[in-house]
Specification:
The complex is a heterotrimer of chains A (about 100), B (about 400) and C (about 180). With about 100 residues, chain A is mainly alpha-helical. Chain A is built from three helices and no strands. Chain A is about 75% helix and about 0% strand. In chain B, about 40% of the residues are buried. In chain C, about 75% of the residues lie in helices and about 0% in strands. Chains in contact: A-C, B-C. Chains B and C meet through helix 3, helix 6, helix 7 and helix 8 of B and helix 1, helix 2 and helix 3 of C.
Chain lengths: ~100, ~400, ~180
């Protein structure tokens, strides 16, 4: 491999941590969704990096990454639909303003 | 005779080879690889704008003829220097940025939109051994890179802080996303037949000297080609699918607030996209550079410019779609037709050719007829005016 | 050829640094539209990294699905919910310092573990190259069941998203 495996793993760890930070501190629901995409992306990088270094079939990593991408797309679609419905009813997209269980 | 033909065929490839040989004598190995990459890149960077400049001239000439006038003919012989005059005009124009605009994004949008338009040139096979990079995922690369184009359009429309821009940008994005689906599905039969995503291999499988094995001469190929071409026209926002920049409703759509060179960059990306989409349509369905007698690159450019002329002819003759008609056409007509086309092509692979013709033509014809019937918009027989009496 | 390899290595490290910078942009910028553009840059950068790791097919899929479709969806929703030029709204909550401290602790711990673990790197794996043909065969053979499950999930999500986001008809009861 051109770059040692450890460096790629640390890179994806940092990316994951940044995504997690976004999920923890963002007020905007869309911002949280975007940060989740970052975290999923970091996981994908790990899958590819491991599939390059172990003696599994070489396509395994790519296939699981494709599954992750599909799931990420569904998550984004449903999440954004919920955001739209919420905005229509409450006129807000900020998590701390959505503090009632029923309205 | 055969040798001369071969020589003309590979003239550009050989020229590059000689250059590299010459450099190889007195430079280390790795620079030769680098120079080879640089030569390809420079050729593409020159070819893209050049093609764009003369496409505008061609379009103005043909549109002129359609409208019974001459078109530009004052600058240079037959107006051949007109694109250069236009370029000088664009460069010297004032660059206006709206006061409320998001300055950085407003600047970045036209720069970024040119990048994917140039990048897709990499996988277009201009002639025998004249693909810049022979990727084994070439076709997928083309579809992926050309799908980036929505983001700079969003950037331009959002950063302008103008409601016409915003509406135009939203329309463009919706249109491009919708038409990408049938476009991607319409190339699936071609991938199944050639069993490869590489544009070079796809051209190779359509080889044949005098008897033409182009995919367009099969029922599924014809349907796929028509769908792909219509989607290509919609993808590069050309009439009759030019809702994003419909002058009568939206001023100029997402590039309302752009002037001078930035506007020219948007324009350039649009024309380069038109060229590459026609080139890929040629590659996939019209046999690419395959053809008898003439050199391969001449065949490629001939077929591509023929398709571009069809696009211009569309512009000269068809009225613009309405938004709901546009979306309905993509989702209710093109998408089902591609979905029928794929199994037909899959069966074609296993069935002997005569039998395949016998079943596939009726299936496609019946489904086409059914879809046309289903999509007919409701028009009452006799108009009723309840308030008129 | 060593020189070329060096160039590629420098390129990959620069790419990683750029991706991290844009990722920071995603979580710190105030204008949500800029965040979305930064995310697009991160996704494209990751796709380039996949090319560096010899996963070209995945790179193309990433750009096609993430940048072409998901990003467009996100930007659409941002345009529908955001008000133009509203800069005074606080985008982050007050947990920021606590999050930074705890996350940096986790990162240091995991990085130390990562560097200490001897990762087995086999020569056979380094030579292997997944072709598109092999990918397709695996997807339709070994992984046929998960593939079908994913397609069912996609359909369910499609219908669900439409059902959630569609406007209620005037006659319908909203509750």
């Amino acid at each position: 491999m051109i770059v040692p495996l450890q460096h790629i793993l640390i890179f994806s760890l940092l990316l994951f941590a940044i995504g997690l930070y976004g999920v923890l501190v963002r007020r905007n629901i869309i911002g949280i969704l975007i940060s989740i995409e970052l975290m999923l992306n970091a996981a994908n990088i790990n899958l590819i990096a491991f599939s390059k270094s172990t003696s599994l079939a070489p396509e395994t990593g790519q296939i699981f990454a494709i599954f992750v991408i599909a799931i990420a797309a569904t998550a984004a679609a449903v999440g954004l639909a919920i955001v739209l419905a919420l905005y229509r009813v409450r006129k807000t997209v900020y998590t701390d303003e959505v503090n009632l269980l029923k309205w | 005779m055969k040798e001369i033909e071969f020589f003309v065929d590979l003239i550009f490839v050989n020229a590059k080879g000689w250059c590299l040989d010459l450099l190889g004598h007195f430079l280390p190995d790795w620079t030769v690889v680098l120079v080879s990459i640089i030569i390809s890149a420079v050729v593409i960077m020159v070819l893209g704008p050049l093609v764009m400049m003369y496409l505008t001239l061609l379009e103005r000439k043909v549109i002129g003829r359609i409208q019974n006038r001459y078109g530009p003919n004052r600058v240079g012989k037959w107006g051949l220097l007109q694109p250069i005059a236009d370029g000088i005009k664009m460069f010297t124009k004032e660059d206006i940025v709206p006061a409320q605009a998001d300055k950085i994004i407003h600047f970045l949008a036209p720069v970024i939109i040119v990048i994917p338009a140039l990048m897709v040139f990499l996988v277009v096979p201009f002639g025998e051994r004249m693909t810049a990079v022979n990727l084994n995922i070439g076709l997928l690369y083309f579809i992926a890179v050309s799908s980036i184009t929505t983001i700079p359009i969003f950037m331009g429309s959002w950063a302008s802080r103008n409601k016409y821009s915003l509406l135009g940008g939203m329309r463009t994005a919706a249109q491009m996303i919708s038409y990408e689906v049938p476009m991607t599905l319409s190339v699936v039969p071609v991938i199944m037949m050639s069993q490869s995503l590489s544009t070079n291999t796809i051209v190779m499988t359509q080889a044949g000297d005098m008897d033409l094995h182009w995919f367009v001469f099969t029922p599924w190929g014809l349907v796929g080609f028509v769908i792909f071409f219509l989607c290509a026209v919609a993808e590069c926002n050309r009439p009759p699918f030019d809702l994003p920049e419909a002058e009568s409703e939206l001023v100029a759509g997402f590039h309302t607030e752009y002037s001078g060179m930035k506007f020219a960059l948007f324009y350039m990306a649009e024309y380069m996209n038109a060229f590459t989409l026609c080139g890929i349509a040629t590659t996939l369905f019209l046999g690419g550079w395959q053809g008898p007698l003439f050199p391969s690159w001449l065949w490629f450019f001939g077929k591509t410019f023929l398709l571009i002329c069809v696009m211009i002819w569309f512009r000269g003759t068809f009225p613009r779609f309405r938004v709901d008609q546009l979306m309905g056409f993509a989702w209710k007509f093109l998408l089902p037709l591609t979905l029928i086309n794929i199994p037909v092509a899959a069966l074609w692979f296993f069935v002997p050719e005569q039998l395949a013709w016998i079943y596939s033509v009726p299936i496609l014809a019946v489904s086409l007829w059914g879809l046309v019937k289903l999509n007919r918009s409701f028009v009452p027989e006799k108009r009723i005016y309840p308030l008129a009496d | 050829m060593e020189t070329l390899e060096l160039f590629v290595r420098i390129g990959i490290y620069t790419l990683m640094a750029l991706v991290l910078v844009f990722a920071l942009g995603v979580v710190t910028l105030r204008n949500l539209f800029h965040c979305a553009l930064c995310l697009a840059a991160v996704l494209i950068g990751t796709a380039m990294l996949y090319v560096g790791l010899r996963a070209d097919f995945l790179a193309a899929v990433q750009i096609l699905i993430y940048v072409g479709a998901v990003m467009t969806l996100v930007i659409f929703v941002i345009m529908l919910t955001e008000h133009l030029g509203e800069k005074s709204i606080r985008q982050n909550n007050r947990q920021s310092p606590a999050a930074v401290i705890s996350l940096s602790g986790i990162v240091v711990l995991l990085a130390a573990l990562l560097l200490r673990t001897p990762w087995p790197v086999t020569d056979k794996a380094l030579q292997a190259k997944a072709s598109v043909m092999a990918l397709g065969k695996a997807l339709m053979g070994t992984y046929a069941f998960p593939f079908e499950v994913i397609s069912v999930i996609l359909i369910a999500c499609l219908i669900g998203a439409i059902a959630i986001a569609k406007k209620d008809l005037p006659g319908e009861d909203v509750s």
